[in-house]
Design goal:
- By secondary structure, the protein is α/β, with parallel strands linked by helices.
- It folds into 2 domains: about 20-330, TIM Barrel; about 345-410, no CATH class.
- It is about 40% helix and about 10% strand.
- It has helices at about 5-10, 15-20, 50, 65-85, 100-115, 135-145, 155-160, 170-185, 205-215, 235-240, 240-255, 265-275, 280-290, 325-330, 335-345, 355-360, 380-395, 400-410, and strands at about 30-35, 85-95, 120-125, 145-150, 195-200, 220-225, 260-265, 290-295, 300-305, 320.
- Strands 7-6-5-4-3-2-1-8-9-10 form a 10-stranded mixed beta sheet.
- Helix 9 links the parallel strand 5 (about 195-200) and strand 6.
- This is Radical SAM protein.
- Pfam families: Radical_SAM.
- InterPro entries: Aldolase_TIM, rSAM, rSAM_sf, Sulphatase_maturase_rSAM.
- GO terms for molecular function: iron-sulfur cluster binding; metal ion binding; oxidoreductase activity.
- Its cofactor is [4Fe-4S] cluster.
Length: about 425
Amino acid sequence: MNQTEMSTESGNTPAARYERSMRAGRGNSLQIILKVAERCNIACTYCYFFFGGDDSHKFNPAFIGDDTVDDLAAFVEEAIERYRLDLVRIIIHGGEPLMLKRPRMERLLGAIAAASKATQLQFTIQTNAMLVDEAWIELFERFNVYVGVSIDGPREANDTYRLDKRSRGTYDRTIAGLELLRKAHADGRIARPGALCVVNPELVDAQVLYGHLVRDLEFHNVDFLLPDDNHDSMPEPRRAAFRSFMLELFECYRAEKDGRVTIRFFNKLLYALTMKPFFASELQRYFARKDIVFTVSSAGDIAPDDILRMTDPQLMKLGLNIRDATLADVLRNERLDELADVTYRLPTACGGCEWSSVCRGGDIYHRYRRGTGFDNPSIYCDTLKALFERMAETAVDSGMPVEAIDARLKTPLPVVA
């Protein structure tokens, strides 16, 4: 009896009911964070993967093998056929994914593309760009791979923590790879690369950071990330600096005149604040869960969203592997179902907060504390409140009726059984 057959025996569990609802095929999307390399050519001191307390990478293959690639292709093909998926997005991750040899990366991309057939397929790769060369760009062009570049601002800020194994800065080598990517974009070969930046108020002024990424380096798609810390890893005094820093970054974005510039972090909050109440209803939140995200290790093990390894490493151990599991097994997994419910459940301390219907306590991994789990507000609670307040003012200044904002904030929260 395989895992899918075993899971059907408990057909009245919330996870099993959810899996059955997926078969309706309404706008289903599958996103897989694929760890093709569990090694890196640099050693960022804040890296959640290598220095976050989970040492599973030490026991996994350094690089994904051909057998695991074939298992993944079969997994994707079966998922598409069973659930009529509209979109498959493979987020190629590491470590540093370009440490995987190009022929093996080419085989991986080709196998997944063949398995995806007529379904929309998106490849995204997150890299420090230090290994980018013409041969890699040719591969990106052929398989339409979107490239995200990890960079933390100007040289002084970037090279504080983004160091190689010999404690040397990486900025210049990242910029060299970025220049090749930018030229390939200018030649019409690949999409414009995006930027992923971990913010640190101690290292750089917010306006300088924004100007460097958007003006100097000409990124149009930027995601500013708050450090992947939680109540156990970030002391309270350090949290206060993020409030004014993120507000200043938002003012830079608010003043932006180039309509092509998109800051994902702020857009996500703006959307949560300004969406119509109906789209925040329990029904819509339920259907939003059809955007399935999970991680696959270089060994083929299936785990929750990769960032959760910063909380409790045991959460990453589901006992599922793509060599013998299907998407049905993932959807029916009780631990993943519990994590999904926690995402929508309001932390106890957030009851009565005027922003609770749009914030919901913040990202789950920022809520974690040993002993109370995820039943805590985000460590960036004050930052989020200040941003929502400023965004509400901005929305009203832009013509959105105050009554519409008020209605959104009074939207009843979905009840999690």
